[in-house]
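Q: Sequence in, structure out?
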Amino acid sequence: MKVIALVISHIGLIKSESIPFNQPLLLFYGQVKQGKTIILNAVRWAFGGEYPQDILTHDADKGYIQLHFENGYLKRDFYRAENGEVKSRPLTLILDDEKVARPVEKLKALLNPFLLDQNYLVNMTEFYRKKYFAEVFETSTPALDAEFSKCNTEAAELRIKVKSYGDIAPVKVERVEVSSLRAKLQAVQTENRLRVDGHAMACGGVLAHNNQRKEAE
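A: Exactly. Output:
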C-alpha cells in the first residue's frame, strides 16, 4: 500500500495543507514552530493511539488528518466536546471504494507486519529481504527483477522435475543407537573368536594324537 498524499486540516499550527508524496525524497524545512514536527506527528496520529489535548488549531472545534493511498484513504477526525475536551472519532478506512469494518487490524496487516510477527524480516530469505526494502523505498531494481525472474524459472523447472518422479511418500527414519549396536557386534566378534580358537585347539589335539599313534606303530 503506497501513500500518495497527506491532508491536514486544523491540526496544531497547520490550518489547511495538502502534501503530495510524488518524489523519492521530501524535505521539510523552516523556522522553529512552523509546523514541521506537526507534519511528522500527523502521520503517526492518523493511525490511532494517543494525541495531545491541544492537537486542534487554536479556536478550532474540529479538524482531521487524512492519508491518501493508491486505492483508498485513511481518515481520523478530532472534535471538541461540550466540556472542552478534544476527542477522536473512530478511524475511517476506505479501500477499493469499500469501508473496512476493522480498520486497525487491517492496517496492522497491510502497513506494519512487524506487529503480527516480530521476526518478519529475520525469517525472510536474503532475496525477499532485498525485495521488501526495494518496494518500501521505491528503488529501481533491474538486477533484482532479473534475479527474481531467474528464481521463478528455476523453481518452475524444479517443480516439473519433482512432478516427473510421481508421488513421493515421506518415510520417517528412527534414530539408531549406534553405541548399543557396537557393543553387540563386539560381543559377537569375541564369541566367534573364542569358538575359532577352541576349534583350532581341538584340531591341534587330534592331530598330535594321530602323530603319536603313527610313531608308536
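The helical segments are 36-46, 103-111, 126-136, 142-164, 178-216.
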